[in-house]
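Fold it.
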Amino acid sequence: MLSRAIERTLRAPAAERAQLFAQLVGEIEAFMAAHPEERPWTCRGYTGTDGSAIFRGGVGHSLVVDPAGRLWRARSYEDFATTYRFTDRSCEIDTLTPLYAEMREYRLR
């Protein structure tokens, strides 16, 4: 499902890619929630400091749609400059700055 979502997103106009991918991720999450016998699948969205749309999965991978609409495969920890927000009970991501030189760009085959 994810590979089909990536391909569909790459075929869309660049200006529509972030919104389309967010919609497709939501559909994958709903499908996986309805099929608990499958492995768990989660994704959380963030906005990068450069305006990118960042989709972080639960297995250490992220997908980034940069402001120009290009898609990038990233490692959730190594490929971002990250700041955190601390409270008495939690540590949450505050900002994510994509390091594109460390990422691999998705392209149509």
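DSSP finds two helices and seven strands in the chain.
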